[in-house]
Specification:
The protein is α+β, with helices and mostly antiparallel strands. It has 11 helices and 26 strands. The structure holds zinc ion (ZN) (2 copies). Its cofactor is Ca(2+); Zn(2+).
Length: about 450
């Protein structure tokens, strides 16, 4: 558990809470939460997309414990601090390197490239002392007023453009840096810190490279998000013919659709790309998180279908011709496996959606116009497929996702949500996906 000390430190460091002179004497420790610190906490919760309750919830503490960048989340300098030239030099200090100098150079070169792909700025490595940007690895105190903290916690920090230390990037040498999949990806952290070295602040866009907490997943190729690109181009201009960046899914975007939807205990999870929204019956706010926040790197992004087998306490994920079975947070041995295990004929190459009925112990798989009934108890597919339109009249095939909760079957196709009553075999309502995520409600509430 966090005691108020580290929480106060966190807020002070990242949300610049500076107790006023005499504040400590005036108030007892218990009063702190009703004063400035509480406002900072709300600010922090708002930044990370948590319900801004001002209370130290488990979720809030979990975000605070995440490894992250050492810079503050409330800097406002964008548009003022930038390099004035179009060619920048960098130098890599050769002490404390986690790998060979050649490997480290290769990683940094590709991290710079992420940025130079979208802005008309070029980066050149220099071996001599003079360079605009000095990149180095340090342990604990390294004489810049912001000591590193050993393994975990703060991973790196950087200085905004300027002379001297300006633009410099420091990595915590004590981290378990990696090039592949274990430990912290040097490439992902470098891409983020280089953004600061170019003048970017933190972004609360969960999909952005400039998001302050480490959320890189080796299952997903690191790319700048639309917000990263917009911000850097505002500073340096546009590089012609850059690839359009991915937009982080927005629950209020009218074109929103889902990849998959499932129950998870009392919650309903809505999947999109490498993100998901979690809807809990007891909470108003529907927060977006990374899929990897629940299952680390066990399951891929951009899923086709997901269902929870309550009886066996398993989650089953589908993508392409493969499926993954996860118990708790861990992938079962031998997975992913081929979906032919379920008894699909070889012509079925993927599934669109999976609909599990816990009471009846069966799952329906959707493939185009067809649906297949799978007996979970006997692990057998029922005879031949039937037509979706015959089983669920009014629902348009092919669908994106399906789930059973609150006594209804819910189908998702594009930006539409079909609610179906299985007892009367009738369509109850058709609404937009935004309404399911209570986007409208939240917009009018505040
Ligand atoms: Zn940062
Ligand atoms: Zn430093």
């Amino acid at each position: 558990m966090f005691s108020p000390g580290p929480v106060q430190e966190y807020l002070q460091h990242f949300f610049s809470h500076h107790p006023e002179a005499g504040e400590r004497q005036k108030r007892s420790a218990g009063d702190d939460w009703t004063t400035g610190l509480c406002d900072k906490l709300k600010k922090m919760q708002h930044f990370f997309g948590l319900p801004p309750s001002g209370e130290l919830t488990q979720e809030t503490l979990a975000v605070m414990r995440k490894p992250r960048c050492g810079l503050s989340d409330v800097e406002h300098f964008e548009g003022t601090t930038r390099w004035k030239k179009k060619t920048l030099s960098y130098r890599i200090v050769r002490s404390n390197l986690p790998f060979s100098a050649a490997k480290v150079y290769k990683v940094f070169k590709s991290a710079w490239q992420l940025w130079s792909n979208v802005i008309p700025v070029r980066f050149h490595k220099r071996n001599r002392k003079e360079a605009d940007i000095i990149i180095s690895f340090h342990q604990t105190d390294h004489k810049d007023g912001t000591p590193f903290d050993g393994k975990g916690g703060i991973l790196a920090h950087a200085f905004f453009p300027g002379p001297g230390i300006g633009g410099d990037v420091h990595f915590d040498a004590e981290e378990d840096w990696s090039i592949n999949s274990t430990g912290f990806s040097l490439f992902a952290v470098a891409a983020h810190e280089f953004g600061h070295a170019l003048g970017l602040a933190h972004s609360s866009d969960l999909g952005a490279v400039m998001y302050p907490a480490y959320n890189f997943s080796p299952n997903y190729e690191l790319r700048l998000s639309l917000s990263d690109v917009k911000h850097i181009q505002r500073l340096y201009g546009i590089c012609p013919d850059f690839d359009p960046p991915p937009r982080t899914p927005d629950k209020c975007h009218s074109d929103l659709s889902f990849d998959a939807v499932t129950e998870l205990q009392q919650e309903v999870l809505y999947f999109k790309d490498r993100f998901m929204w979690r809807k809990h019956p007891q909470f108003d706010e529907i927060g977006m998180t990374m899929i990897s926040s629940l299952w680390s790197d066990s399951v891929p992004a951009s899923l086709d279908a997901v269902y929870q087998n309550v009886e066996k306490n398993l989650m089953v994920f589908f993508k392409g011709h493969q499926y993954w079975v996860v118990r708790g947070h861990d992938l079962e041995k031998g997975f992913p496996r081929n979906i032919s295990d379920f008894g699909f004929p070889s012509r079925v190459k993927s599934v669109d959606a999976a609909l599990h009925f816990r009471d009846k112990r069966y799952t329906v798989f959707f493939t185009g116009q067809e649906c297949w009934k799978y007996d979970e108890q006997h692990r057998a597919m029922h005879n031949s497929p039937s037509l979706l339109e015959r089983q669920w009249p009014g629902v348009e095939a092919p669908i994106d996702a399906a789930v059973f909760y609150d006594g209804f079957v819910h189908f998702f196709k594009g930006n539409l949500h079909f609610q179906f009553d299985n007892n009367s075999k009738s369509l109850v309502s058709v609404s937009t996906v935004n309404e399911v995520l209570e986007c409208n409600k939240i917009l009018t509430k505040r």
